[in-house]
Write a structure and sequence with these properties.
The complex is a heterotrimer. By secondary structure, chain B is an alpha/beta fold. Helices cover 33% and strands 16% of the residues of chain B. Chain C has eight helices and six strands. The chains are: A alpha+beta, B alpha/beta, C alpha/beta. At the B-C interface, helix 1, strand 1, helix 2 and helix 6 of B face helix 3, helix 4, helix 7, strand 5 and strand 6 of C. The complex binds zinc ion.
Amino acid sequence: MGVIIEIPSALKEYVNNQDEVEVDGSSVVEALDSLCTQFPELKPNLFEEDGIVRKFINIYINDDDIRYADGIKSMLKEGDSIQIVPSVAGGFQ
Amino acid sequence: MLPGVVGLIQATEVIKLILDNGVPLKGRLLLYDAMKMNFKEVSVSKDPECALCGISATITELIDYTKFCDAKPVTSAQEEFNSESFELSPFEFKTALEYDPTAVLIDVREQYEWEICHIDGARLIPTSSFDPKSSGLSKESSIYLYCYKGQRSIMALKELWKAGYTNLKNLKGGIDLWAEDIDPDMPQY
Amino acid sequence: MTLNNEEISRYSRHLTLPEVGMGGQLKLKEAKILMVGAGGLGSPLGMYLGAVGIGKLGIVDFDVVDHTNLHRQIAHAASDEGRPKVHSLRDTILAGNSNIEIDVHNTRLDRENVMELFEQYDVIADGSDNFETRYLINDAAYFTKKPLVSASIFRFHGQITIFDPDSGGPCYRCLYSEPPPAALVPS
Ligand SMILES: [Zn+2]
């Protein structure tokens, strides 16, 4: 199943400067795996070494935080989009 | 202007809180993308495990924030990798470049930064497309790297180091410090 | 607290709005807002809060106006280069509305000064530019039970929300429990 992953500007450089990438996957982890296979440099930015999502990154299915669903195992429905939102600190840039 | 819009939304929310009117931006994170010119909203829930406001909070007074925000190793390899051992001050960097016949100078910033200024003789390989394998760089040559402030170039340097390159130098303080110490005619940004 | 005739005329378009009215305008006049950061976010934030008639505005920043700030930090003029940002922003706000009181704190917010400062205000607005300060502000706002209106920016991307754990909402740590490792923060 095709799903759109929206990439934040802080991570765009790892995905050839695209705003969004369409991947296959029926769960968040499948979709992110497929994204990281295409763009291996992205992986250490999204995941800790033990495979958990980095704590300064939140992942949403549509507008819901996956931490309050089934985490990265959360299932996707047709038409869902995944949003990756990293913590940013700037007040001036 | 990007921050302008965001600051005005922030002001609006402050004013609504004071007036105690309208629907405040609580439990919702508003995301603004100036390039796409769109606003999105995602939900923000209270985390029962929050270290500050959660059920078994561990933070009960102000902590050492410098320590809390200090760099944690990105990978375990970083522990053996001592970035300082590759760093040269702008003056040392310039001298070494001039005396080193095998020197190759690499700028790892992005194209738009290159267009503002760059060091003569450099070759541009942006970090966004930096890959030791396809870089064509020889392990026989000395590779001199720089970026804006020295952070991205050290990451590129580390990639090369992991890929088996040994003769590596990083410009401490990046082109920004270079402009200050070596080339006063170079624009700073 | 009342409005004088100049204020009544100044805020008349507010006074005739049912959402604000005299009651709302007096609430604004009684309000005490502390803003952290007098840069890209702080400029429009402070100018707006000043114009709208917030009674007391506190501004914290330790930076001085630099030439490279001028294209986006609109409260600062070319003639302000080298001046503390808090002074430059204060003067810009007061030039528009001299009815309000502005307290400037030309200092870096830290563990020693943050609690006492926050106690004096009703709402905190975070427009700071680094993670250390953001976590400090969050924790201090939690301990002093002040709502925190938080905004941050990266390149062309902005994030805005209100943290108010005292009224049951989340805090900054609920959203992001840890900052990125320094090596992953783009320079
Ligand atoms: Zn919390």
